[in-house]
Amino acid sequence: MPPKKRTYAECDNPSLNLNLKKLKKSVSDDSEKVSDTASTENCVTQIEYCTNDNTVSLTSSPLSVQLPISERLLLIEQELCQKLNSINFRSSIEYVYNPIIYAFEVHAMYVKNYCNGYKKILFLGMNPGPWGMSQTGVPFGEISMVRDWLKLSGFVGKPPREHPDRKVTGFDCTRSEVSGKRLWGLFREMCGTPQNFFKHCYVHNYCPIALMDRKGKNITPAELKGEEQKLLYELCDEALTSIIQLLNVEIVVGIGRFAEKRAQIAVRTAKLSVRVLWISHPSPRSVGNQNWDEKTKKRLYDLELAQYFSN
């Protein structure tokens, strides 16, 4: 008998419906503010519901509205989350966390506060960590950095299935994600305020979901096999390309080699005129990552990117 496969949508996911309804309401509210003479060149995503089985579908419709960039980014992310529902992960993957869904309130606040215009530089991470984005909905979202520097907080729900050693407690989480504290700590040192950093830059994760086996071991996208990896890459590449174009990004900085490689492939496939660079990942598990802050600051200067950080 073939091994049982599992999708992360096995359980009903009313939070996804709720989040998409919030976005739909935002679309409706914004459309009322736009005159009838607005250009029809810009299409927005319409959200349809099937309430009997908690499913949603998203289709493009040429409405005469121009949504804010933050709303359009949220729609791209939610559409990606919906498409990822179709992936049948192998049976060894027991837990799938999607903080964009269960931590939607904080994640949407992050996007709306800090991604409301074009960005020259996109810092690209891989996927959520257990004590960062999985807890807060913010990429590299170490609790104290999100709460005290980015000034974000709010309700965080639960994934459909939770590993007992990887519980989501939101801002009550007492563990600190070193990677997030290093990354945002460096940006705080170089920029002073979030507004100075986000004037030209934005931080985004390539893949919005975290995967774990029955023991709670993290399974990275690079460790997936066969069709499940192929499909995840295709969907995430497509969403990344859309976000790069939406934000008019000129430079993608992969945080680690994996993110750099996926950005290179996405940019090359879409024939985009975008530079792809990299910095080392701030994880303490990465080889040679002592003094990560000093080394990364020097690299940002060497890449001539520090000029876009104002303090």
Automatic annotation (TrEMBL):
Signal peptide: none
Domain Uracil-DNA glycosylase-like: 115-295
Single annotated GO MF: single-strand selective uracil DNA N-glycosylase activity
Keyword DNA repair: yes
GO cellular component, one term: nucleus
GO biological process terms on file: base-excision repair
Subcellular location: Nucleus
Primary location recorded for the protein, binned into one broad class: nucleus
Keywords assigned by UniProt, alphabetized: DNA damage, DNA repair, DNA-binding, Hydrolase, Nucleus
A Pfam entry, by short name: UDG
Presence of the UniProt keyword Nucleus in the record: yes
Domain of life: Eukaryota
Assigned protein family: Belongs to the uracil-DNA glycosylase (UDG) superfamily. SMUG1 family.
Protein name in the entry: Uracil-DNA glycosylase-like domain-containing protein
